[in-house]
Amino acid sequence: VLDEGRFLADLEELGGIGAAPGEGRTRLALSDEDGEARRWLVRRMEELGLEIRVDGIGNLFGILPGEEGTEAPVTAGSHLDTVIRAGALDGAYGVLGALAVLRGVRESGTRLRRALAVAAFTNEEGVRFQPDMMGSLVLSGRLPLEEALAARDREGLRAGEELERLGFRGTDRVTPGAYLELHIEQGPRLEDAGARIGVVEGIQGIAWWGCTYRGQANHAGTTPMDRRRDAFAGVADLSRSLRELAARVPSSVATLGRVEVRPGAINVVPGRVDFTVDVRAEAPESFGRLKEEVPRLLREAAGRHALELEAEALADAPPVRFPREMTDLVDSCARGETDRVLRLASGAGHDAQFLHFLCPTAMIFVPSRGGLSHCPEEHTEAADLLRGVRVLARGLIALAQR
Amino acid sequence: VLDEGRFLADLEELGGIGAAPGEGRTRLALSDEDGEARRWLVRRMEELGLEIRVDGIGNLFGILPGEEGTEAPVTAGSHLDTVIRAGALDGAYGVLGALAVLRGVRESGTRLRRALAVAAFTNEEGVRFQPDMMGSLVLSGRLPLEEALAARDREGLRAGEELERLGFRGTDRVTPGAYLELHIEQGPRLEDAGARIGVVEGIQGIAWWGCTYRGQANHAGTTPMDRRRDAFAGVADLSRSLRELAARVPSSVATLGRVEVRPGAINVVPGRVDFTVDVRAEAPESFGRLKEEVPRLLREAAGRHALELEAEALADAPPVRFPREMTDLVDSCARGETDRVLRLASGAGHDAQFLHFLCPTAMIFVPSRGGLSHCPEEHTEAADLLRGVRVLARGLIALAQR
Ligand SMILES: NC(=O)NCCC(=O)O
Ligand SMILES: NC(=O)NCCC(=O)O
After folding, report:
1. What's the pTM value of the predicted model, to 2 decimals?
2. A184 in helix, strand or coil?
3. A374 labelled ligand-binding
């Protein structure tokens, strides 16, 4: 029994936090806006009488005890942080979908063997602090807590300090017994296939670098083309060679997302560019090839323009495949709601990528209109959103009864 | 009789205005720092007893009357504004060189037939407000004053408002009878040739555009390469095609100097880039070809990535050749100081480019170490700076005696 109105109203209310007209919403991890979203969620959890837990990296859990207590809860969730000018669904949908399921279970008085939990993981997006999926990485033991807390944003602020400032540096320890993540697809595949639910079989590998090219700022009028050390020309050539790389490696993608050109004046040859590289592939051998080739391409473009290169690996999330029993469970739950089901891999990273190393994990996708995400135009029809929550409810209840 | 110590001290003092350690100095046109430099220069002019004039666009003149009065002064100068993180010499050298000559004439009691003037033209660099050479453009009648005053910076502030705010919106009218501009070369040709003085025969054409590519921000992981509308990929391809254009058109240059990528997040395909294009060539037919091809290349790269294009022409300064009698005069003045003289065209734009349309005009160059300018590393040896001022003194006195 899902309170659909309440769920949709919650989604809208949370979507208003950090919003600006025409610019979507921006809730960078551990910003004031993220803090506001966290406090909002805590109030919702309290209203439901959930037991609230916060761990060392600020992952937030609301637990509904089962007949056997609160240990190893069957967990669902996602994240509250967003990219810059984001849609209302990425992350928020999975958290509020889980909350809606727990609310339904609670309010209907359904008794379950195992505890249920809703989770909001810290810094999934990785826009402000790298690596992304930071909260789930720490929870899974694949990133030391101290290292995560020491991550700095571009102003030099540390994740740990920001967590303290917001009052979300906890001491609890929660270990999910199983994990289901409900998410919008963020890509075009469900829509292309006319499918209503995606059974996510795995997540592709993601590697990130933060880089700087240093050349020589000089006069745009007096400096002959063959004597320039134009840092922007270096990044432009890199853009082309990364796109060629993505064309060579099957089903891979490559993106230059942040590019800051200095000094940034109309008549000055750029002397410095700070930029990021994002490459992804599903097949482990393809992902390995990308990780091997990017540093070479970075050096090649630098060499061609006599630039100095600094490059730091910022994230390296391996491709994962969820266990067969979990994807089969999601598949059968999905088929309880629709027969338009597609099995696919996720192009985006998700906390499930690291929960996978901790407990049986799977994901449920709903379609994204036009395949758009990480932009204000991100949208999914309410009917699809609600269908996804019903699939999640089936999955959580099945797992909690085992 | 040149007070060398005083001249070098002035250069250092002016160079301190807007300076930051390790970052050169930034005195964007009509900023507070530009205002401070203007007030500093006014004090120097007053100390010398010059008659101070400020015209409608804020060009600043200090006049030393001749036997025939103050009309049509033989003028020398340049500009006080700078690019971002500039050297101490671009512009300042020409203003202070002229000031040093007027000081020498004044203090030695030399009597000249015609008046002399030192001039500091408004917004030569064009980094904050376009077009560049704004003050000399207005003075020459090639840009209506009202249009110049209405130019807006990227925050939407108008040049006219800023001029009022600084108290440099004047009502005087000064019409130079001849113009000599002393400047660092800003390029490598004098140094390459081992020459100490450059006789500038002309200035190459300069065309600027301010552009926007709009695509679609989207998720870096889920958006297949062939379905992206990546605004940065568009600018990267444009960078390559502009460099190919510069290679096709003899002795031309092309630069992408300002490039702002949005939203600028590591895992978001860029949905928008704002950027500038600067192309230059000396031969009129080459300059014409550049101006014809750039809009086509802008459209081509946009088309390849399904981007919307907005492009606005921001500056269009034609190539000029100074009159033979003026370059011959500079040549003979130069040979009074050294036999290592090179005739060359200027790669940078200068106020002389538009004074040329008003009165007999020429320029004197001194070498730039490593050909560097528009960067903190800009440097010229004191001996070269002083030699340039002596050549300027010979030229101004010869013209003022005619
Ligand atoms: N779901 C999602 O957008 N995650 C952010 C991490 C990434 O894939 O870039
Ligand atoms: N001299 C100088 O740097 N002028 C600025 C205008 C330009 O050439 O870009």
Report:
1. 0.95
2. strand
3. yes
